[in-house]
Design a protein that fits this description.
Elements (H helix, E strand, L loop, with lengths): L9 H23 L7 E8 L7 H4 L6 E3 L3 E8 L5 H7 E4 L4 E6 L2 E6 L8 E6 L19 E7 L3 E6 L8 E5 L4 E4 L5 E8 L5 E8 L9 E6 L16 E5 L4 E8 L5 E8 L2 E11 L12 E2 L8 E3 L5 E6 L2 E6 L9 E3 L4 E5 L5 E7 L5 E7 L4 E7 L3 E6 L5 E9 L7 E9 L5 E6 L9 E3 L5 E9 L18 E10 L6 H5 L4 E12 L2
Parallel strand pairs: 2-8
Antiparallel strand pairs: 1-3, 3-6, 4-7, 5-6, 7-8, 9-10, 9-35, 10-11, 12-13, 13-14, 14-15, 16-17, 17-18, 18-19, 20-21, 21-22, 22-23, 24-25, 25-26, 26-27, 28-29, 29-30, 30-31, 32-33, 33-34, 34-35
């Protein structure tokens, strides 16, 4: 007698049961329509130079990160197409930051009108925003509540110390935390410095403390202890590395490119004064980890120079004009030449405008606004000097440190600070300084809300064999005070009238803001 064989094996029955269950689940989902929860998938930042940099370093997801003025927009990526009006109406930033919206599919960008003030923590919240198709499907699909925070960098300044403790040393002072940190050792006298744009390192020139040779400076880098927003850790502060020695050449002026990847140095050969020109150094090391050696930029000799905002060229005073030279070995063919302007004082951040100086035959100087559209607009004239100018990143304003020639038997210049509205040409005097303060230097904060300047007191009879601090004119420095002036847009006339500079409890000179 034979038994009847089961048609379904146990494994088959399990498989069939699972398929039926899945069919039932799929049917229920279809019957209920689209139930994907609306939410923010990603919160990222957009770097002002992101088109030229590696995206992994310019767009990053952040929670409680510190950002600088170079990050001018954040991006929200959504899980579904959104009702743009409901998002824009319900996005809240505390404290408020004025900005503009832009959309690309499921991505929303929010661009700040002005840089976010430094030393502040912000909260971004989005609630009650709707799905794009919610009204059509007659559902109330609200976004899953989203919240994140970010902070702007601390307000940090750098200066060369002039007190007994930090004389000639590079000092970092955190205004937000009220903390002071000396970055360079006692055996070096710092003569000049430039921060890298990410704020992690400082390029500085220094000579031995026991040397009175003012032209014996070598170039070094030193770490600040701060990390960039896209990095989790930072190098310890005060780590000094030699970048360029002075064995064959004297190292004079230098500049760091806006992207932080190139250094340009003006050098002169010690045994041949006629061998004088610009050299450029790629900051990125070669495959062996060694610093790439400097390369000579072949061009006609020149004077003052400045790297252009795109980091691909250098503006160099040549003869009676200014040449724009490519940053490559062969710089004999200028990209552009401005025969009527002898000096570039400043570039705007996007490179579309420049403040340029015209030297007149009657010994006066004119300041012009020159645009990449060929416009040349005269802003002011002075009988003295145009010492420094800087474009504000927060408004169409140019801040300048000028001098005017005082009447009298003796040659005497009086320095003063002025704000210029580059759209209207309106000038707003900020501060008149004493006539004996012609060595003043200024620095505009990254968020455009403060102006640093120094007041140096010189010593006509410095003590012999003492570490000698000198001005750019070679005068011995006895002491120096640092001042901070709050800034507001020129249009706020009444508020500006009430602003007064504040003396900082620091002794030093050559102040600079950390980016």
């Amino acid at each position: 007698m034979t038994s009847k064989k089961n048609f379904f094996q146990p494994l088959d029955r399990i498989a069939i049961a699972l398929m039926l269950l899945l069919i039932l689940i799929i049917g229920l989902i279809i019957s209920q329509g689209d139930v994907v929860r609306v939410r923010v998938r990603e919160f990222t930042w957009k770097h002002v130079q992101s088109e030229e940099k590696d995206i992994s370093r310019t767009n990053f997801t952040t929670q409680n990160q510190n950002i600088g003025a170079e990050y001018k927009a954040f991006i929200l990526s959504f899980s579904r197409p959104m009702d743009t009006k409901s998002v824009e109406e319900n996005l809240k930033i505390e404290p408020p930051l004025a900005g503009t919206f832009s959309w690309a599919g499921r991505r929303m960008g929010y661009s700040f009108i002005t840089p976010a003030p430094y030393g502040t923590t912000y909260k971004v919240k989005l609630e009650k925003a709707k799905d794009k198709f919610a009204s059509q499907e007659k559902t109330n699909k609200l976004i899953q509540p989203f919240e994140t925070t970010f902070s702007t960098r601390d307000r940090v300044i750098l200066y060369i110390g002039a007190s007994n403790e930090d004389q000639g040393r590079l000092v970092l002072y955190n205004l937000t935390e009220e903390q002071k940190k000396i970055l360079t050792p006692k055996d070096l006298i710092v003569t000049d410095f430039k921060p890298f744009p990410d704020g992690q390192k400082i390029l500085f020139a220094a000579r031995p403390a026991n040397s009175q040779d003012l032209l014996s400076a070598q170039l070094y880098t030193v770490t600040t202890g701060f990390n960039a927003p896209y990095e989790k850790t930072a190098e310890a502060a005060a780590k000094v590395d030699l970048l360029l020695d002075n064995k064959e050449y004297q190292n004079l002026k230098f500049d760091v490119s806006p992207d932080g990847e190139t250094i340009v140095v003006q050098r002169g050969k010690k045994d041949n004064p006629g061998d004088f020109g610009l050299w450029f150094i790629p900051v990125i090391s070669d495959s062996s980890g060694q610093q790439t050696p400097p390369q000579r930029l072949q061009s006609q000799p020149g004077g003052d120079f400045m790297i252009t905002p795109d980091s691909k060229a250098v503006a160099l005073a040549q003869g009676q004009g200014t040449a724009i030279l490519p940053l490559q070995k062969d710089g004999t063919k200028p990209l552009d030449f401005f025969p009527q302007f002898g000096l570039v004082q400043a570039f705007s951040g996007d490179g579309s405008q420049a403040a340029m100086v015209k030297f007149n035959t009657d010994y006066t100087r004119d300041l012009f606004l020159v645009t990449n559209q060929g416009v040349q607009k005269k802003l002011l004239s002075t009988t003295g000097s145009i010492v420094n100018c800087q474009f504000d990143t927060a408004s169409p304003t140019l801040y300048c440190l000028l001098t005017q020639l005082l009447p009298g038997e003796y040659y005497q210049e009086q320095p003063y600070l002025v704000a210029i509205d580059i759209k209207t040409g309106q000038q707003k005097p900020l501060l008149v300084l004493p006539p004996d303060q012609r060595n003043v230097q200024m620095s505009l904060s990254p968020d455009g809300l403060g102006l640093l300047f120094d007041q140096i007191q010189t010593n006509p009879n410095p003590p012999a064999n003492a570490p000698l601090l000198t001005t750019d004119d070679g005068e011995a420095i006895a002491t120096s005070n640092l001042w901070l002036m709050p800034l507001l847009p020129i249009a706020d006339a009444q508020e500006n009238a009430d602003l007064k500079p504040e003396q900082l409890p620091l002794t030093g000179f050559h102040p600079r803001w950390l980016p």
